[in-house]
Amino acid sequence: MSSSFGAEKELMVNGTAYQIYRLDALENSARLPVSIRILLENLLRHEDGVTVTATDIKAVANWDPQAEPSREIQYRPARVLMQDFTGVPAVVDLAAMRDAMVKLGGNATDINPLQAAELVIDHSVQVDHFGDANAFDLNAEIEFQRNRERYQFLKWGQSGFSSLKVVPPDTGIVHQINLEYLARVVYSEQRDEKLLAFPDTLVGTDSHTTMINGIGVLGWGVGGIEAEASMLGQPISMLVPKVVGVKLVGKLPEGSLATDLVLTIVERLREHGVVGKFVEFYGPAIATMPLGDRATIANMAPEYGATCGLFPVDQETLDYLHLTNRSEDQIALVEAYAKTQGMFHTADSAEAEYSETLEIDLSAIEPSLAGPKRPQDRVALKDAKTQFEHAVEAFNGGESQTVSTNIDGASTKITDGDVVIAAITSCTNTSNPSVMMAAGLLAKKAVESGLTVKPWVKTSLGPGSRVVMQYLEQAGLDKSLDTLGFDLVGYGCTTCIGNSGPLPEEVSKAISDGDLTVTSVLSGNRNFEGRVHAEVRMNYLASPPLVVAYALAGTMNVDLYQDPLGVNTKGEPVFLKDIWPSSKEIAEAISDNLTREGFIASYARLFDGDSRWQSLEAPVGSQFQWDPDSTYIRHPPYFEEISLDPDPITDIEAARCLAWLGDSVTTDHISPAGAIKADSPAGEYLNELGVKADEFNSYGSRRGNHEVMMRGTFANIRLRNRLLPDSEGGVTRHLPSGDEMSIYDAAMRYKEESVPVIVIAGKEYGSGSSRDWAAKGPALQGVRAVIAESYERIHRTNLVCMGILPLQFLPGESAESLGLTGEERFFIPDPGDQTVHRISVMAKSDKGSEKEFSVTVRIDTPNEVDYFKHGGILHYVLRKMASENSK
């Protein structure tokens, strides 16, 4: 397709001719932030006069940094990235859409990804075994036993859908593999007999997809539903955002690490307010910042609330591409393209025009943690003991509890505040050689000093790629970590996503007997309640070396600056400062042991898998043969009664409140990913089907079974429903009877009574993971609308994409300020065809009083109006494709 602006030009690189769409064909484009330039190029390349017009392109070229977002564009990323927890339900939906397409008179293969889709299996390994040289093999064996059926299904998907590549389990974490291997930085493909080159862009079914922003690739998390539509050729409808420029100056002081920096950035940007905005990093500190540090910062964009956290392409980017064994031709293309398009950052690069700016001085960064239940709640290490003492009072009322127990034949005591999980985990940090080497060096010095980990601490090391173990082994640091119990447990997300596995029986019993408030310390990115482990109430994020240090201390009730970690072989106290590695030691360890050859060896057979994967038999055929007895993969009900024409949207009449929730309710609260309790609705369902409790696996692993997932919706044991203020967990009151029951049972009872239901919530509803089941589950429970004070970006989109109406209280108003009790019957009119606008909601009490209040309809774009009217985005896409094929 030709551009209205004459932007098509040839770019010669090492004798190969590429066609590119030059941004300098448009006036003023050089002033734009890089992220807006990437969007602009995307529009130039896809101009068709219908979905992308010359007017759209001019509007983005003339982007006003101070204007409120109002221009809707149709954005087409180059590829889609998935992990298995979100990937399995996505492939389940695509398989169900094939069946529906056949029913509507089309061909099954009409449902097929139209662009590159890559799925990395990383969310399924659990830490069943730890502190053992054989832990990796034992955990991998259990993983395959639990997930054989899911893996067979994914193998079918890889053969059944073109353009879908699957990275087998026990290889690494999706975002680290994307960073080290999959990302192109500049993409190239054949189109109309020409070789096009353009920025590598992606959306991913995991909120931490933003990690790839560290290498200069624009990408962010979306719900699985939206990703499926994108794979099928549906553009992503979005408003051109504001861009916040974060200027980085100075240099990290001795003793501070990238983890400390990112936790500070999370705190600062949450305070500033960047939800729904792009963030770009710039400034003099960029030039000396290793790419690993950039990736760590970009990874936590969801935690600071931004859509993305983009770093520029520069010489460090090119050096990293060489280190990670990208081809020399690819590196040359990246350099030539970035320089031609004005996207290559140097010390002389002019500052872009940003909507807002703030400055962060790296020299002021101090060692930090975040917790006990939100990643933005940073606390300086020097204040950690005092902060813990205040925080624990909320759990134990200021009365510390202690329980005596016996571990490995020795008597010991476990007390409130003791660390029972210490996990080096998550791509956030394991992708960063500096913090991993720091952990290894600290472990080496600890072992040499005769220090040991406390017996009640469950230790684990779960790197994001095999490269990590390669350089730790080469440096000889793996043995020290092993000695302290940080043996390799798996290449996957493990503890960071709640796959921490069971605590030792003696520890678990002590916690239960004493109702202890114990803690975890992990190098992850989230520490929401109930996420890391159901028995652990307080969770702290920290750098890998601090994880090791707290494992040695065994408690959060310690001042690591003043209190010793233990005593050496001479009986002398050993302090953290005695074993903390210097920046020089860390740099030398990296220089000597992080090599291109290590990446070559680690990625030589990425898609092959081990013998377990290779021997796995998978079904074949364009349509999946559903097993009605399966407890993992079931045909979802979304398209069972679909017709070419959608039913009209109706008013919501006399709806009851299923749950009234507070602030910062995460997608983990709405749809947990961790262990399934035996006495939960999901556990009871599996038990009725003959599944033993020790084979329940996790909610995340059963996302291909809607029966489990709808029962698991609002089942988080830490959920607080104000309809039952004295209870905790997934319980509610049925109205008007007042009967107390699980939220799932109440939802089914309302369905039997033909009563629609809504959810009321506070601020930041749906924060956290890009979990489409946090919208799918409520939809299957009959939730028609959510009324919240504010939403996180991805979850609001997911609600619309599942046909749930997102409504927002007016600024300064809330359920409390309006005097609502949650016991009313709610009347909500059809929102019509408009985007963001106000409607009136009527709340009628059973005693006859009425209260009318206005809310904002958060259907933000015209495309979303269409999705909502069709009952969801997949229904819209399916009907559109079926209609086109019938012509």
The CATH architecture classification of the largest domain is: 2-Layer Sandwich
**Major sheet description:** 7 strands, mixed, barrel
Which fold name fills CATH's third level, the topology of the largest domain? Answer: Aconitase, domain 3
CATH superfamily of the largest domain: Aconitase, domain 3
The pLDDT mean sits at: 95
Topology summary:
Blueprint lengths: L7 E6 L2 E6 L12 H12 L8 H8 L10 E4 L3 E5 H20 L12 E5 L14 H26 L3 E4 L6 H9 L3 E6 L2 E6 L1 E4 L13 E4 L2 H8 L4 E4 L3 E7 L8 H15 L5 E5 L8 H9 L1 H4 L3 E3 L4 H9 L4 H13 L15 E6 L6 E3 L7 E3 L3 H13 L5 E6 L2 E6 L3 E7 L1 H4 L2 H16 L9 E5 L3 H9 L3 H6 L21 H10 L4 E4 L15 E4 L2 H10 L12 E2 L5 E2 L1 H4 L3 H11 L2 H7 L8 H4 L37 E9 L6 H4 L10 H8 L17 H7 L18 E3 L6 E3 H10 L4 E4 L12 H9 L1 E6 L4 H9 L3 E5 L15 E4 L8 E8 L5 E8 L4 H8 L3 H14 L1
Parallel strand pairs: 4-5, 4-9, 5-6, 9-10, 12-13, 12-15, 13-14, 20-21, 20-22, 22-23, 26-29, 29-30, 30-31
Antiparallel strand pairs: 1-2, 3-11, 7-8, 16-17, 18-19, 24-25, 26-32, 27-28, 31-34, 32-33, 33-34
Helix pairs in contact: 1-2, 3-6, 7-8, 14-18, 14-20, 15-21, 24-25, 25-27, 27-28, 29-30
